[in-house]
Design a protein that fits this description.
This protein is mainly alpha-helical. The protein has one domain. The chain has three helices and no strands.
């Protein structure tokens, strides 16, 4: 196995562990505001996945890039829907 592949796997595992630990320690009242910030990161993920899918590095790269685009877009859309729903809770009702 190449050094780049091993380095990539190590970074992925460490990022997954660190992310799970950080999110696990956040109080429930802060989860929704953090989701808004995570949507921006997911937007960056979409751009990266598009670059991988369009790079022409083989069919495996294209398929995995496409799946990454689909998953990241589901995360972005779902995150914005939840954030919008949360913001609706704080709007004052209009008097008629």
């Amino acid at each position: 196995m190449s050094d780049a592949l091993i380095t990539g796997i190590v970074v992925f595992v460490l990022a997954t562990y660190l992310g799970a630990e950080l999110i696990g320690r956040v109080p429930p009242t802060l989860h929704t505001p953090l989701m808004s910030g995570a949507n921006a990161i997911s937007g960056i993920t979409v751009v990266g996945a598009l670059l991988v899918a369009a790079a022409g590095l083989g069919w495996i790269s294209t398929v995995l890039g496409f799946l990454a685009v689909v998953c990241a877009m589901m995360n972005v859309v779902g995150g914005y829907a939840v954030t919008d729903r949360m913001l609706q809770m704080f709007k004052k009702e209009e008097k008629k």
